[in-house]
Amino acid sequence: MHFTGRTWRPHYESNSVIIQATSGCTYGKCHFCNLYKNENFHMSSIKEFEEDLSEIKKYQPNARRIFMTGANPFAMSYNNLKLRLLTIRDYLIKCQTIAMFSSIRDIKDKELWQLKKLRAMGLNGLSIGTESGDDKTLLLANKGYNSSDILEQCTKLDKAGIEYYFVYMTGLSGKGNGYRNAINSVKLFNKLNPYFISVDSLTLFSDTEIYKMVQTGEFIPASEKERIQELQIFIHTLKIRTHIFANSISNFYPITAYLPKEREKVINELQYIIDTTNEKDMKEYRKKLKSL
Ligand code: SF4
Question: Is the distance from CB of 197 to CB of 242 less than 8 angstroms?
Fold first, then answer.
């Protein structure tokens, strides 16, 4: 298999077979991120891609879901994506869905008819690192798009019938702003249909812009308890039917919930953690984290 550089896939894709179509990130400017700091964006040749598919076919001929690694393979052109999706289906006849990371920017350059065609070729499951739906937070994190862009592009995905997943990051708006971030993000998310929302919590790494902003006093991190309260507000106000996966390692206390059914249960669980755990222990936990 031709894996180069950092190979990253979300924890909820752990049962998918992974293949590299691209590596690195086309953007690389988000203030909290150091994931692909030392690599340039690279697209695997079709020759390499086919060699990998042939290897997968040998060991996992019945693979049903493929996940393309890299920060945003959806940055590839419509024609390139079409070729890769069709090639996957040539090799793996039982493959039902093909998933990958995408930025809001990558959806922008695809027409609705192209999205519908890609869906028909097996594309389903775009993981989108929205992080927030609050314009001030998106700007602070330097995501390169705003809430209207998220609404416009994800509405296209809804129309094309492509399943997508959001990432929300608690603590990203800084001390005292978690309430605003949660409320404004939910206002936006309530207009869309993310199949689930994966929640992370901001962790500071020394090679990121946001870390430098902390040193200069431009950014004051939220306490761990404020982040949990932010998550409670987020869950409380979210009115769409969806799943919440706040169980990655960046969450001090991992929870998952099916909304609306388990809303009260998880809000109470989080309250118990706020009431019974001290801030110092929570901070110690975060200090030990090695990646996002
Ligand atoms: S968060 Fe995603 S889009 Fe932003 S720099 Fe990191 S990998 Fe690239």
Answer: yes
Write down the pTM of the prediction: 0.93
Tens of pLDDT, residue by residue over 225-236, are 999 999 999 999
**Residue 34 Ramachandran class (φ > 0 left, ψ -120 to 50 alpha, else beta):** alpha
Query: Which amino acid is present at 219?
Result: F
Cβ–ligand 1 distance for 210 under 6 Å, the answer no
Residue 151 structure tokens: 């609404």
Question: Is residue 269 exposed (0-12), middle (13-18) or buried (19+ Cβ within 10 Å)?
Answer: middle
H or E element that contains 241: none
Cα(264) to centroid(ligand 1), Å: 33
Give the residues of the chain that fall short of pLDDT 70: 291-292
Q: What is the pLDDT of residues 57-110, one digit of tens each?
A: 999 999 999 999 988 999 999 999 999 999 999 999 999 999 999 999 999 999
Do 164 and 190 touch, CB atoms closer than 8 A?
A: no
Cα–Cα separations (whole angstroms), residue 94 to 48, 62, 88:
21, 6, 10
Distance 254 CA to ligand 1 centre (A): 23
Residue 222 CA, distance from chain mean position: 21
Give domain 11-287's CATH architecture.
Alpha-Beta Barrel (3.20)
